[in-house]
Amino acid sequence: MSTNGTAVDHGGALPETRVSGVSLRDIVDCHHVGPTLEWLENHAPHVIADELARMDAISAGIAFRLLDKDRALDVFEELEPVDQQQILTGLRDERFRELVEEMDPDDRARMLREAPAKVAKKVLAGLSPRERRMTAALLGYPEGSVGYYMTPEVVALPRNLPVVQALQWVRTKGANAETVYTLPVVDAGRRLIGVVEMRDLVLSSPDAMIADLVEAEPVFVRATDSAEKAARLMQGTNLLNLPVVDSEDRLVGLLTFDDAIEVIEAADSEDVARQAGTTPWEGHYMAAGVFQLARYRAMWLTLLLVAATLTVSVTDFFSGTLEQAAHLALFIPLLIGAGGNAGAQAATTCVRALAVGEVRVSDLFKVIWRECRVGLLLGTMLAIVGLVIGGLFVGAEIGVVVGITLVIICGWAATIGGTMPLLAKKLRIDPAVISAPMVTTLVDATGLIIYFTTAKIVLGI
Amino acid sequence: MSTNGTAVDHGGALPETRVSGVSLRDIVDCHHVGPTLEWLENHAPHVIADELARMDAISAGIAFRLLDKDRALDVFEELEPVDQQQILTGLRDERFRELVEEMDPDDRARMLREAPAKVAKKVLAGLSPRERRMTAALLGYPEGSVGYYMTPEVVALPRNLPVVQALQWVRTKGANAETVYTLPVVDAGRRLIGVVEMRDLVLSSPDAMIADLVEAEPVFVRATDSAEKAARLMQGTNLLNLPVVDSEDRLVGLLTFDDAIEVIEAADSEDVARQAGTTPWEGHYMAAGVFQLARYRAMWLTLLLVAATLTVSVTDFFSGTLEQAAHLALFIPLLIGAGGNAGAQAATTCVRALAVGEVRVSDLFKVIWRECRVGLLLGTMLAIVGLVIGGLFVGAEIGVVVGITLVIICGWAATIGGTMPLLAKKLRIDPAVISAPMVTTLVDATGLIIYFTTAKIVLGI
């Protein structure tokens, strides 16, 4: 083929350009089989999967059944576990079995964990004994562990082979393996003693010995280790695949780069969701119902509202001050807004620095000292603006109150925002739970105390 | 080796466990050469790079010069461009040249873009003509493009070879290539006509022909395409490397998986920073100075403060209402807090959904309709809590005002928060710029209008 012709549907085809056409959903919903078939034929598997994920279960099922056999598998592999489940429940038994048998064991295990017991049972029953055994083993690892994500189908090499025989070995045993690029070298007890990259096999002379090519101090992880940490380790070391061993150092699988990317992306999505005060979830935004979207936000929103009752109490407590200087009310939103923003900046920076490993729990006091100075510096800068705003709206005296409050609030907010994620981690709570809105709400109440106290002192009331 | 012995420094060694020991920084700062050498010998390159990144330029330079030659290169490759530059400026010419010549052309180009002109000149002058040519070509691509990140050292295969000869071809030409796992197949004019995976070469019979193995409709991108979109395409299709072509479909390089992960991580970090209202930057948190940290937050914080002047105007406008019912002031922080949170949730969800491609610009009206209903639903739920809080602190009438305000504010905030990122994208602004604090500040001012208007109507003032 010439790359000119089909560029638009593949690489040149970055998501934007696809939007111009009619969407699969529209075609299917109009019950036109012909156009649907044509659309399916003219789009790449990952594009089709993307469209299916946006559709409701019934339309997606109709479109999927119209795919021819080979493409159906390609598309199916690109789908998220939730969507795979939906598709499966709509299929006849024979096709159901075929699809499930062809999946990689790690993808299958991940889908099964989220599937209702009835579907899971049916899936396992339809598998060949070999595939069933591997899937069952993976199902034993806890969520979020390396074992949960690894592939158990690995080509392991013995130590004393020449390269030409090792390549022959890979050719014989590698057909089912998810990757043949990282070849763990094991002893007779299947204990990991090193790693050979396929690159080294291919580039070496055929008579070279595996023992001479082996990386003898391989980076590896245990199946029970955290998948996110393992994935970030791969990112830090630029490794394609990471050998996984059990508690007795026996090779049990490989964590592949595509699963690592997925782990990192899921962790980042989760951190982002937490930072905004919503519960993380894995569904597709456009496929979710309104009630479902609301449910994921409801808990935090309610908690934050209840916590905000503190601000009512504080204002109530200072109602005398507020009565004597009614103008103070004008600046409440501005001041707690500034404090909230300064706190959210510090919190987000520190949560991220913790996640990528730039900051460690032992840095607690260094972080407090840094953020306190950063906050005071920013507060001093804002105070100049605040002085002007306060002066213009009411008068110089209120301007001074607003200015001083800004310095103190920003110093305090940045310190709290930077410190809380570290404290959370120390207490073994996910630092991302210390979300920006949580810091903001806390800073709101304390900020009001700072404001009214400053006002009482400066205005002498 | 037995994996037991050194597990702690490598894989088993996920970042946490490293903290227990003394840090490299402490050892170097005490001027103990012996312990420094010992520490360097006992840690893996990526661990050493991690520690160097946390240190100031001088200490890092001292530690780096103590590394032996081979390990120095390994460590150097793990460093970020900024840190590489710092290290380089402290080295004598001979070692400087060696290190730079050994780097991958794409990494070198990335470092050079950020280096001061003096360093860049020195680097280019010291290179062999071949390396200089490749680096110069990469320097021609704009920041954020695929060309900026790709590796130009690719093994391209002609179409009509048997597998055994293709493997021989790779063995001869592959030594300098960054990867040999994705082998683009080109015609006589170096135009991309397909891709062969090394996996297929290794698993096929030696007499099979390349023409039969080739994936004839390869996914590819252009060198001028957005690197983030290309990286997300790789993530979506689970491709290890993506062929890159120029405007005439000629092969110019490969985007490798490790660069793709880096692109995605950088984009995510940037989105997170923007969501918190700070300017994204690439430095290391612990290595940054206080002034530097403050600088990255100052602009947004000031802008948001100036925008918050709106809230002062609105409150000032309604000061008559506030005088007649002073109790209204008590609930200002709570109400604008709830609106801000609901808006931030919607904004963050939609920015993320846009980034990963779940939502498209053409979904604008669907998103408005969804978020509006989600917001009203959440608002109704919060209204019950607000009714109780308002009733307890002041009385039933204020409770009703607070309740009604919550319903309207949440519906409005979620709609605005969900819509603004899409509008930004439509106007070709990065949606992540529509940060949570920006939505919050906007909702603060409009929320006050909603509050005071509701109060006037319900209380009849």
Descriptive account of the structure:
The structure is a homodimer of 461-residue chains. The first copy, chain A, has 3 domains: 3-144, Alpha Horseshoe (MgtE N-terminal fold), CATH 1.25.60.10; 163-275, CBS-domain (Roll), CATH 3.10.580; 308-459, Orthogonal Bundle (Tetracycline Repressor, domain 2). The first copy, chain A, is 65% helix and 5% strand. Chain A contains 25 helices and 5 strands. The longest helix of chain A is centred in the C-terminal third of the chain and has 31 residues, at 396-426. Chain A starts with a helix and ends with a helix. In chain A, 52% of the residues are buried. At the A-B interface, α1, α5, α14, β2 and α15 of A face α1, α5, α14, β2 and α15 of B.
Return the structural class of chain A: mainly alpha
**Number of strand segments of chain A:** 5
Assembly state of the chains shown: homodimer
Per DSSP, the total helix count of chain A is 25
* Strand-residue proportion of chain A: 5-15%
* Major sheet of chain A: 3 strands, mixed
Task: Say what the CATH topology of the largest domain in chain A is.
Answer: Tetracycline Repressor, domain 2
Cross-sheet strand order for the largest sheet of chain A: 3-4-5
What's the CATH H-level homologous superfamily of the largest domain in chain A?
SLC41 divalent cation transporters, integral membrane domain
Main CATH class of the largest domain in chain A: Mainly Alpha
Largest interface comes to:
A-B, 147 and 146 residues
How large is the radius of gyration of chain A? Answer: 29 Å
Order of helices and strands of chain A: HHHHHHHHHHHHHHEEHHEHEEHHHHHHHH
Q: What is the molecular shape of chain A?
A: globular
